[in-house]
Amino acid sequence: MANVPEYFGSLVFDDRVMKANLSAPVYQSLKKTIDEGAQLDLSVANAVAIAMKDWAVAHGATHYTHWFQPLTGITAEKHDSFISPSPDGGVIMEFSGKELIKGEPDASSFPNGGLRATFEARGYTAWDPTSYAFIKGKTLCIPTAFCSYGGQALDKKTPLLRSMEALNKQALRILRLFGNDTAKCVRSSVGPEQEYFLITKEMYDQRPDLRFTGRTLFGAKPPKGQEMDDHYFGVIKPRVEAFMEDLNEQLWKLGILAKTEHNEVAPAQHELAPIYTTTNIATDQNQLTMEIMQKVAAKHGLVCLLHEKPFAGVNGSGKHNNWSIATDSGQNLLSPGETPYENAQFLLFLCAVIKAVDDYQDLLRLSVATAGNDHRLGANEAPPAVVSIFVGDELGAVLEAIETGTPYKGAEKTQMTLGVDVLPEFNRDTTDRNRTSPFAFTGNKFEFRMLGSSNSIACANIMLNAAVAESLRIYADRLEQAEDFETTLNSMIRKTIKDHKNIIFNGNGYDESWIREATEKRGLLNYRTTPDCMPHLMDKKNVEMLTAHGVYSEDELRSRCDIMLENYCKTVVIEGNTMVDMAKTQIIPAVETYAADVARSGAAKKALDPTLACSYEAGLVKKLSELTDSAAMRTRELEEALARLKVAEDVVGESILIRDTVLPAMEHLRKVCDEAETLTARSYWPFPTYGDLLFSVR
Ligand code: ADP
Ligand code: MG
Fold it and tell me: Are 348 and 326 within one domain?
């Protein structure tokens, strides 16, 4: 597979294929649906279905599936074959517009957070023509939204599309006010940078914690960790290189523009970044990327760990969500312009984001909340749980000059009066290397860095799109009524900066003093854990905003809140049970066996020569025995904490009990077992150590 341009996108029913395989009227009509959201009629759908099927069959497909993203966070598919009996006893390959547009998987086995109780058990999937169909293995995958019969979203794509529509609507209002009559639509784009770990399958198989929970629940610090910083951007090992080559080929065939790969800070950690695309497509492609990473790894005898914190004491994995908004003609609305007028428009969009992030800190925080990500945020390796914005020094100075009406030092013009014509020119700073900020302006886009590596990017972008749509709505309402556009514009920009400058922080986000300043002086929110933030999804202001823009109904929000908390509880309970099991059946027995052997060796020596002190053996046996006693006690405490969860009245109560009792009990048990590991002969230890795991791939 040498010729990349030739095979790039070869498994995607993309624009090139559509143009080549659809009649001109059908193509035009479909394009109108894709670009402008126009209704699609059945005759067009039928024609598309036939072309799609013929193309897929020519590429070896025998089945099709409506590919969707239920609230489990992963993707789901149910395969149907194209085969249909023909009168002569043979078969023909068939696929209709109806089958393309709508599917009916059984919704009852997917999480629905109570939506099923009020609505029918069955759900349906609806074709999303804005994301291209593709072939995976022998199956044509059709990206779809997944809803209940009552029309309630049971997936992540539906609210994402709604949030994009909300943003589109409000952004267009603003553009019209700036005299732009040509833009047909405004879309948000995302380039998600994906971090992951690679370890060997052989090591993975020996660790029940990795197999059951995706992360290590025990493990003493290895003699060498990431302290040398010798892995970051270092030479990629041959086995990893082979994996990356294979991965790229698979992704490229699916039209995914995987562009950069490099080693990350931690040993065995790597990153993949695609070229950005429309949020909706980026979301589908990121889900696909995660799936294919795991498949390709397996082919190479490796396991790709997507967990946010696979190893304690070693950097976890995140996903940087690079986000911008642009018109259909490609104008990036977060790019500072060439003229003062363009700059004014840019500043308004910038202010919309600043206001959105400040007003909806809680929504952004909870959009990335999972049990796994709780180990990262605020652990001095990832942004803190406090949301703040980095704008850089130059833009910061511009904002300050506008707010105070004082001269901007960078411009030679003297006074910054607030007429649009004198908004300052400034250099765009694309050199942000402040990696400690949760939300950084990087020249022409924002980088939201709180996402966990396994998160679907849908959730964060739903909240981001919706919150920015709300800022823009408020601005547009005012500007449309304004007697004098420029004066109103300027006072609004100034007011936004004044009201929301508390959210702007250009310093070190890892600094303990920042957290104090943020919470005590600036009144920013600091929700450390999932149980802390998730219930705020139902706060009045959040429900009002999200329902007003048609992104979620109140029922859908309640169901999300429940499902996210349920996921949190289930995740930690499985971890707790796995720890109990490993401690009881592997760790304690191993330490016991070792202690008994040491004791026997001491006794044997004493039998040979009663004058020998054997103090090493005696001391070690005593220590090991204390540790097994303590491990047994800690195990019992953890079991009790897990058992007590039954008394919780609801999922909120359960999540709080988990946060306050189960997680601390897990930590206590781990501490004792990790100490035992450092004192037990390696040959007795029942599974690979951190050193084995982290340096397993060569
Ligand atoms: P880095 O963050 O390492 O400096 P880049 O800034 O070049 O790297 O890009 C990181 C990611 O941001 C890539 O996925 C890239 O495609 C994406 N990106 C670049 N420009 C935009 C944009 N205007 N909107 C959204 N994502 C973008
Ligand atoms: Mg980046």
Answer: yes
Expressed as residue numbers, the domain containing 690 is: 568-694
Domain CATH for 593: 1.20.120.1560
Q: Is 279 in the pocket of ligand 1 (CB under 6 A)?
A: no
The structural domain count of the chain equals 3
pLDDT surpassing 60 at residue 8: yes
Q: Containing H/E element for 616?
A: helix 615-644
Q: How far apart are CA 589 and CA 380, in angstroms?
A: 36
Burial class of residue 90 (count of CB atoms within 10 Å of its CB; 0-12, 13-18, 19+): exposed
Sign of CA dihedral 542, 545, 549, 553: positive
130 contact partners, CB below 8 Å, separation of at least 6:
34, 161, 278, 280, 281
What CATH number has the domain bearing residue 350?
Answer: 3.30.590.10
For the Cβ of 214 lying below 6 angstroms from any atom of ligand 1, the answer is no
Helix ranges (DSSP H) in 278-332:
279-299
What is residue 118's predicted lDDT score, i.e. its pLDDT? Answer: 45
CATH number at residue 34: 3.10.20.70
* Residue 678, Ramachandran bin (φ over 0: left; ψ between -120 and 50: alpha; else beta): alpha
At position 233, the amino acid (one-letter code) is F
Is residue 221 included in any domain, yes or no? no
**CA 377, CA 661: separation in Å to the nearest integer?**
20
Q: Verify whether ligand 1 is closer than 6 Å to residue 271 (CB atom).
A: no
- Backbone phi and psi for residue 186, each to the nearest 5 degrees, phi listed first: -125, 130
Taking only the tens place, the pLDDT of each residue in 86-111 is 888 888 888 999 999 888 877 677 77
- Does 471 lie in the same domain as 438? yes
* Residue closest to 306 by CA, chosen among 204, 198, 205, 232: 198
How far is the CA of 465 from the CAs of 60, 168, 176, 280, 643, in angstroms?
A: 39, 9, 19, 12, 41
CB contact at 8 A, 435 and 381: no
Which ligand has an atom closest to residue 333 CA? 1
Would you state the structure tokens that stand for residue 227, as one six-digit string? 């302290």
The reply to whether ligand 1 has any atom less than 6 angstroms from the CB of 444 is yes
- The Cα 417–Cα 427 span in angstroms is 20
Residues 404 and 424: beta-carbon distance below 8 Å: no
User: What is the greatest pairwise CA distance in the chain?
Assistant: 104
Q: Does residue 302 share a domain with residue 357?
A: yes
269: β partners:
197
Q: To which H or E segment does residue 34 belong?
A: helix 24-36
Please check whether residue 562 lies inside any domain of the structure. Answer: no
Same domain, 129 and 200: no
259, 260, 281, 322: which to mutate for ligand 1, most atoms within 8 A of CB? 322
180: which 2 tokens? Answer: 């732009």
302 forms beta bridges with: 200
Quote the CA–CA distance of 679 and 620 in Å, as a whole number.
8
Side-chain-facing half-sphere of 324: CA atoms under 13 Å: 20
Polymer length of the chain = 698
Q: Which residue has the tokens 């999540």?
A: 655
Last residue of a domain, one of 527, 552, 577: 552
In a domain, 249, yes or no: yes
The predicted pLDDT at position 425 comes to 57
| 189 CB within 6 A, ligand 1 | yes
Ligand 1, atom 19, lies closest to the CA of 276
Say if residue 605's pLDDT is above 90. Answer: yes
Closest CA to 67 of 154, 125, 147: 125
**High-pLDDT (> 90) share of the chain, %:** 73
